């Protein structure tokens, strides 16, 4: 467990997963074991969304079809700790093109035993704690012209029954998010959202462009920065949401501000 501390703020990171962000003893992150979701955060890469409607195949320029399960192959890889100090920590995942990766959803929730991606990439996740702000930076590098989508999937603990999710697009109630179900509530063209709970938390982003919100319970809500909303197109056209790597690395940021 990696622990960061700055004044009244503390962070706990378990193998790259943000499992606690506290300020003045107030916990903002959904706790594992609580109803709603078995995780606290994860990344969606290089695919966002379900691909079961296309037999878990996604069209890519290199090699035709790639086999991916929900939200992509990255979540099956293990983070390695690169560096840490009192207020910063850096984790990294590496993937070599064509490597077969076991699918943890098989056989209960998927028909595919293996996932495979025809591109090599490096994915870095960095944490920086500064007073009452936690900055999370994602750095993507790899083969030029590699297609990808990126989503960050944190879950926030709720302390009241009727919180509000507020953006420039308006207010969203928890009931509205629950009503959408597994498709997740789309928040287009948005770089900042404030969760108005017992205490407010603002999620600011760079590089993503959109959000989606999801939950199935009243004690947590996922407010997820995304580069592409997967239900905006037919699943067979999921590849239309790809971005493509250039010569330099791509950087995305999420700031949790109290």
From TrEMBL:
Cofactors required: Ca(2+)
Record's keyword terms, sorted: Calcium
Keyword Calcium in record: yes
GO biological process: carbohydrate metabolic process
MF term (GO), any: isomerase activity
Gene3D superfamilies: 2.70.98.10
Pfam family, one: Aldose_epim
Keyword Calcium: yes
Database matches in CDD domains: Aldose_epim
Assembly and oligomerization: Monomer.
Name the record gives this protein: Aldose epimerase
Organism: Flagellimonas eckloniae
Lineage summary: Bacteria, Pseudomonadati, Bacteroidota, Flavobacteriia, Flavobacteriales
